[in-house]
Amino acid sequence: MDNLNSNIPYLMAQSLTQTPTGAVELHSHDVGAVNPSTVLVKFLAAPINPLDLLVLRGSYPVKPTHQYQGKAIPGYDGIGEVVECGEGVTQFIPGDLVVPSKFGAGTWRTHAVLDVSSLQKISRPNDLAFGAMLKLDVLPAYFLLEDMAALKPGDWIIQNAATSVVAQMVTQFAHLRGLRSISIIRDRDAASVTQIKQSLCSLGADIVLTENELPEQIPILSTNPVKLALDSVFGSSARLLIDSLAIGGTFVQLGFLGGTNQELQLSSKDLFVRQLQLRGFRGSAQLAQRTFDEQTALMNWMVQLFNDGALALPALGLERLEWNMAGGVENEVRLLTAVDRAKKAVLGQRKQILVFN
Q: How high is the pLDDT of residue 221?
């Protein structure tokens, strides 16, 4: 089908869509034409995030806002390039780099015609993967330290799931702020533990422990009072973090990597005697506390930190997967396998980034 209203030679696009069972399918289709208030975006990179998997399971409250043939298009984070602007668009010009301004943008596709209100312009990072992770990894890490507790240089924090990208970003922001951090990782073979500890320390972690090592260290932590605990797992792992907190400390629950059916055991002493604060974290809520211009300035500051070498990509690496429209069945298998791999959450799995060719 010819796109008669477009001057751009991208006549076809590809999208991953969500089935009712949470599987994904690949479709090829017409790009569509811009109108006066929209722009044509070519996506450059998009991650497969734990939040995306919650969306596929129907467990996340914010649903995808874009569809193809009645099927939702997943992908809540990513970075793209504006290639064509509607005649009434003044905010962007071709060549601008943009990220979604709202959840549900549907970044698991090669191209999209989007309303200008759903995009934010950012400066160019030295590696597009950093820009692709801004909204769901980098910004939340910053908010966790800025918004969840009053912290000053020298204060201690503790976090589990420390190999996650959010946790690795937390470690770096903590180091920049002069905070001391304890990173908890899952138990695995000795060689892997050693390698992971070295990698996390290279990002600025002060102490790295496995979950089995943490209980024996809790009495020692009393000499270094922990003010903030960040939990991405829940259940028994979260309980260890609560045990590690000093009197008056803050426990923040931000994820369910251990499963949504787990329970967190609390004692009356946790609240009455120890005066702990329990908080839930959603990055979108913290982002909404900033104006649009404040959000953009914050992201550009983070890009500058990255370009200057003050922030780094995850020390444990990323897995970049090529999305090649001309790749036929091989391309389709690669994409569907990547989503299935992410769902299995195998120990040691690195974050996967879809890189559009």
A: 80
Between CA 325 and CA 81, with CA 122 as vertex, the angle to 5 degrees is: 25
Show the low-confidence residues of the chain (pLDDT under 70): 1-11
CA–CA dist 162, 169 (Å, integer): 10
Judge if pTM exceeds 0.90.
yes
Whole-number pLDDT of residue 1: 30
- Exposure string (b/e) for 31-44, b if CB count within 10 Å is 16 or more? bbebeeebbbbbbb
Tell me whether strands 351-356 and 38-48 are parallel, antiparallel or unpaired.
antiparallel
**Cβ atoms within 10 Å, residue 334:** 15
**For residue 209, what pLDDT is reported?**
96
Q: What are phi and psi of 142, to 5 degrees?
A: -65, -45
Determine the 3-state secondary structure of 321 from DSSP: strand
| DSSP H/E element including 316 | none
- Write out the H or E segment, with its range, that includes residue 324: none
Q: Would you state the pLDDT for residue 257?
A: 79
CA atoms of 122 and 124, how far apart (whole Å): 6
Element (H, E) at 44: strand 38-48
Interior angle at CA 102, CA 99 and CA 106, nearest 5? 70
Contacts 24+ apart (CB under 8 A), 85-91: 85/34, 85/39, 85/40, 86/34, 86/35, 86/36, 86/37, 86/38, 86/39, 87/36, 88/36, 88/37, 89/36, 89/37, 89/38, 89/39, 89/116, 91/116, 91/121
Q: H or E stretch including 95?
A: none
State the Cα–Cα distance between residues 351 and 48, nearest whole angstrom. 7
Q: What is the pLDDT of residue 224?
A: 86
Q: What amino acid positions are annotated as catalytic residues?
A: 60
Query: What is the number of residues in the chain?
Result: 357
Residue type for position 226:
V
